[in-house]
Description:
By secondary structure, the chain is α/β, with parallel strands linked by helices. The chain is built from ten helices and twelve strands.
Amino acid sequence: MDWDKLRIFHAVADAGSLTHAGERLNLSQSAVSRQIRALEEGLNSTLFHRHARGLILTEQGELLFDATRAMTKRLDAAAARIRDSEEEVFGVLKVTTTTGFGTLWLAPRLTKLYDKYPDLKIDLMLEERVLDLPMREADVAIRMKEPSQADLIRKRLMTVQMQLYASQDYLRRHGTPEDITDFADHRLICQNPSSAQVAAGAGLVQQLMSHNPHSLLSVNNYFGVLQGVLNDLGIGALPDYLTEDFPHLVRVLPEIESGEVPVFLAYPEELRHSKRITAFRDFVQDEIISHRKQLRQLGKI
């Protein structure tokens, strides 16, 4: 198949209109139409249903559009990686991590990265779904488990544990539990057991739920759990990386905690020489060293 015809087909399928595709490609509507007709004749298939409001892909058109979409992503990824090997630290860096880590640990520290590289643009994508780094859904990921995708460079950054915290005001009003059975007199704030989270955190929540807390507030991310704790609603199951930024939180029942959760930074092998990736990787590593020093000073480790 002719690459140029495929490029024009992709633009038409994406725009849903010959006119709009022509505007994007700087071609006349008639020129676009001729190329589509020639492609259909070459494939001996109808790719579009024509109607007054535009174009709709046929089943065969959908198959071809899936292929051209994948090709376009790969070409964009290749072009971006070629630029990444040559550029200084500017442009867009797509970073993905979990909602909790991204909102509570990473985002508050990004000022330092922007101060050093003011022309850098961070596209921060916070979700529990694991994005496909080789397909350029993101450039770099920070995840609470070792990535399983092939062709990734990965570095273990630190470990996290889920622990129990409450505000001083809550404990003054409701008392401090002395053992896990005291949860029958307290409100537990935690991630919903059915929400996407690491197994260690889910296991801790299930353990606490088995002791029938007096009341419950479940949230689908740790930011919401933290807000509940800060507003004196109860005892929250939270990651221990919060203790530096929220030193007034009181740890409750210190013998109860989840297993260790490894935190990994990962990026595609093709971006090994990207200056943006290097800048972000070094920034995160420096912040983790600083984080550990601060925890030592606070007597937390």
